[in-house]
């Protein structure tokens, strides 16, 4: 049963590698400036279009350009000014009056809608906040995780029963205690370290504080999925291998001896 549970969990975990969405378009990070083609890039927020802006490195206050691409900040989008009353009619731009609107953005491609307005400043426009981005893979992800959780919840009982039947009656308490210690030393304690290191390796933009790296501002979602789920799948494969080793190492005669011993003790108890 333990081998079947481990194998089923491993097979379902593999499918998680193929459930995910691509990275949203972030200029200089996941897509080129003035281009909608998403490509893997090293984070390079500076470009010729914003070379005169002296934008700070690793500064992240995203704005959504009129070209549908998110920029790390209005500075990185090459914006030179903020919309003020009297410049134009906001209804012509189909924007809410609650939005902060940056204008004269040299890194943003000018749209036809932008050309129809009587603006004197060249360049595109941007609004505060990231562009809309959706991912419709939540339902299949939740269903597969639910199935994996069901299999994992079935594991403790047969594992405990196997442990108790593989040792002498006088050693059962020690076996349970030793198994708990080993499980925590090899599992619970180091897991946050290597899982955390795996997650940190997928960060694209780090927050800087006092010249030191801080929290991650932007993750590479595709690399995140493959790294995190890949590690999870690898651990499940290890569980399958160890379960098979346990199965092959069990001596059937040991169970027969324990069974005969239990029968003789029962008969002795009934005789008394």
Written overview of the protein:
- By secondary structure, the protein is α+β, with helices and mostly antiparallel strands.
- The chain is built from nine helices and seven strands; from the N terminus they run αβββαβαβααααββαα.
- It has two domains: 140 residues, no CATH class; 81 residues, no CATH class.
- A five-stranded antiparallel beta sheet has the order 2-1-5-4-3, with no helix packed on it. A two-stranded antiparallel ribbon has the order 6-7.
- β1 and β2 form a beta hairpin.
- The longest helix is centred in the C-terminal third of the chain and has 29 residues.
Instruction: List how many beta strands DSSP finds.
Output: 7
Average of pLDDT: 82
List the domain count as a whole number.
Answer: 2
Q: Over the alpha carbons, how many angstroms does the gyration radius reach?
A: 30 Å
Strand order in the sheet with the most strands: 2-1-5-4-3
| SSE ordering | HEEEHEHEHHHHEEHH
Share in helix: 40-55%
Alpha-carbon distance between the two ends: 38 Å
Approximate shape: elongated
């Amino acid at each position: 049963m333990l081998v079947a549970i481990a194998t089923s969990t491993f097979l379902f975990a593999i499918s998680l590698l193929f459930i995910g969405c691509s990275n949203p378009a972030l200029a200089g990070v996941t897509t080129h400036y003035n281009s909608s083609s998403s490509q893997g890039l090293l984070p390079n927020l500076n470009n010729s279009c914003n070379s005169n802006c002296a934008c700070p490195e690793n500064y992240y206050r995203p704005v959504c350009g009129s070209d549908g691409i998110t920029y790390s900040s209005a500075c990185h989008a090459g914006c030179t000014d903020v919309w003020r009353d009297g410049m134009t009619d906001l209804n012509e731009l189909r924007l809410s009056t609650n939005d902060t609107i940056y204008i004269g953005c040299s890194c943003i491609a000018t749209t036809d809608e932008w050309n129809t307005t009587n603006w004197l400043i060249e360049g595109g426009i941007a609004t505060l906040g990231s562009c809309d981005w959706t991912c419709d893979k939540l339902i299949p992800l939740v269903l597969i995780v639910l199935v994996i959780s069901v299999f994992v919840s079935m594991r403790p009982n047969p594992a405990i029963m196997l442990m108790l039947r593989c040792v002498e009656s006088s050693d059962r308490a020690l076996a349970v205690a030793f198994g708990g210690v080993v499980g925590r030393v090899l599992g619970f304690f180091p897991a946050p370290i290597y899982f955390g290191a795996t997650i940190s390796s997928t960060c694209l933009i780090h927050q800087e504080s006092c010249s030191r790296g801080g929290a991650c501002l932007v993750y590479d979602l595709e690399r995140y999925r493959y790294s995190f789920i890949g590690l999870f799948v690898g651990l499940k494969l290890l569980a399958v291998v160890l379960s098979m080793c346990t199965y092959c190492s069990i001596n059937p005669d040991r169970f027969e001896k324990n069974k005969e011993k239990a029968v003789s003790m029962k008969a002795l108890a009934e005789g008394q």
